[in-house]
Amino acid sequence: MSSVSPYSAQHVTSIYRRLLRLSLNWTVRRDIWRKQALEIRAKFDANKSITNPREIRALIMEGERQLAINRHPDPYIPPSRPGASGINVDNIGSKYERNVPPRLDNPIDGDY
Can you list the residues of the chain whose pLDDT is less than 70? Predict the structure, then answer.
């Protein structure tokens, strides 16, 4: 029987990175997020010497479970990325167009 885990280091790294991104979705302020990132890193560092495949599998399942439980319903997307969070500038128009009421095609009694 091989002592190699069925989960690769890439899988663990992927969970780590996704947990960091997930925590950033919930905390946009970097100073608060940094503390959370250090806590996540400490948890991963505490378990990096585990070699028992069953324990590794349990830890990976726990990481995946945390990702599923804490998933953000409206994740933060930086303004420079497609589908960015916030205002869609393309649909706003100029600052003058935003303040004009909608135009009526058929004037109502007395409106010209």
Answer: 1-7, 85-112
For 28-37, the pLDDT digits (tens) are 788 899 999 9
Alpha helices (H) in the chain, listed in sequence order: 9-26, 30-46, 53-69, 95-98
On whether the CB atoms of residues 64 and 12 are closer than 8 A, the answer is no
Q: Which residue from 49, 55, 59 is spatially nearest to 19, judged by alpha carbons?
A: 59
Average confidence score pLDDT of the chain? 77
**CA gap 31, 24 in Å, rounded:** 11
Task: Tell me how long the chain is.
Answer: 112
pLDDT digits (tens, 9 = 90+) for 87-107: 555 554 444 444 444 455 555
Which tokens in the block code for residue 68?
């599923």
Long-range pairs, 39-45, Cβ under 8 A, ≥24 = 40/16, 41/16, 44/12, 44/16
Q: How far is CA 107 from the centre of its chain?
A: 48
